[in-house]
Write a structure and sequence with these properties.
The chain is α+β, with helices and mostly antiparallel strands. It folds into three domains: about 50 residues, no CATH class; about 100 residues, Beta Barrel (conserved putative lor/sdh protein from methanococcus maripaludis s2 fold); about 90 residues, Efflux pump adaptor protein, beta barrel domain (Elongation Factor Tu (Ef-tu), domain 3). The protein has three helices and 17 strands. The strands form three sheets. A six-stranded antiparallel barrel has the order 5-6-10-8-7-11. Strands 4, 12, 13, 14 and 17 form a five-stranded antiparallel β-sheet that branches. Strands 2-1-3 form a three-stranded antiparallel β-sheet, with no helix packed on it. The protein starts with 6 loop residues before the first helix and ends in a 9-residue tail after the last helix. The relative contact order is 0.14. About 5% of the residues have low confidence.
């Protein structure tokens, strides 16, 4: 004979299920509250540790950015650096140690420059200023016209003084060797045979540019500061002429004036160091550099 459950047993089953669900919710809520309190306690402990800490971290580019913990500058995103006992951060140059010296190098290469032939046989070429080193009136060269690129016409350097063209190039006048008059104007290029020239060079990364011209960050002997130094530059050489400079994979640039052999210049992170220099100058402090 099949027995049906009583009405009391029928009501007890759903009640037990509901009670179990409520118990699980209560346990989950207690676990959530415990986790929240634990995280809050950790945050309070960390905040107390930061308040009691004497360490300070500064941005090397923005000294107004100060933190008690390591991190990054919210302005330039550079890593904050630990301040010294006086509360000052290390200068950017001390971070990187990026100082090199200007050196003399013997450069031997074919000189090729844009040129044009005028009626009468006068050839005008645009040469870099450093290409003039060792040139004397009568120097022989070849002019190649665009119409006949395979046939070079012998020319020689005239006695006319070079005329400035831009910051690094000059107009130099040559004359065709042959006596036959030239009746057709033509553009092309001029080639000077390779010859050794001793030139003062620095890494190309040392040179910065502004509306006033090229400049470097020079560090005088015995000084812990660097200053802006205007320079007159020539051509940029390939990495083969940078041998002996720090970081041979960089190219070299010829310095015609503004630096002497052996003078120290900043060659790495130059843009950021110059920005720091301007900031320090605005605050009345010289920018520092390491020996």
């Amino acid at each position: 004979m099949h027995l049906l459950p009583s009405s009391a047993d029928g009501r007890r089953g759903p009640a037990l299920v509901l009670a179990g669900r409520l118990l699980l919710l209560l346990v989950a809520a207690l676990a959530l509250v415990s986790a929240f309190e634990l995280a809050r306690a950790r945050d309070l402990d960390r905040a107390r540790a930061e308040q009691s800490s004497t360490e300070r971290y500064l941005c090397p580019m923005h000294p107004e950015v100060v933190s008690r913990v390591p991190g990054e500058c919210p302005i330039c995103r550079m890593a904050l650096e630990r301040a010294d006992a006086a509360g000052k951060g290390p200068p950017a140059a001390a971070r990187t140690g990026v100082v090199d010296v200007a050196k003399r190098r013997v450069v031997t290469q074919l000189v090729r420059a844009p040129a044009w032939l005028a009626k009468g046989g006068a050839v005008t070429a645009l040469l870099h200023k450093d290409d003039l080193v060792g040139l004397a009136p009568g120097e022989h060269a070849l002019f190649f016209g665009t119409a006949t690129p395979g046939a070079g016409t012998p020319v020689h350097l005239s006695s006319d003084h070079p005329r400035p063209w831009d910051a690094s190039t000059v107009q130099v006048h040559f004359q065709i060797d042959r006596m036959a008059p030239v009746t057709k104007e033509e553009t092309g290029w001029l080639e000077l045979a390779p010859r050794p020239r001793e030139l003062l060079v620095v890494q190309s990364s040392a040179v910065l540019y502004s509306g006033a011209g090229a400049y470097v960050l020079a560090a005088p002997p015995g000084s812990h500061t660097f200053t802006r130094r205007p320079v007159d530059i020539g051509r940029i050489l390939d990495s083969g002429y940078a041998a002996g400079l720090s970081g041979d994979h960089f190219g070299a640039i010829v310095v015609l004036s503004g630096l002497e052999e052996g003078e120290r210049v900043v060659v790495g992170d130059t843009f950021f160091l110059d920005a720091e220099r301007r900031l320090q100058a605005a605050q009345g402090n010289p920018a520092e550099v390491v020996q």
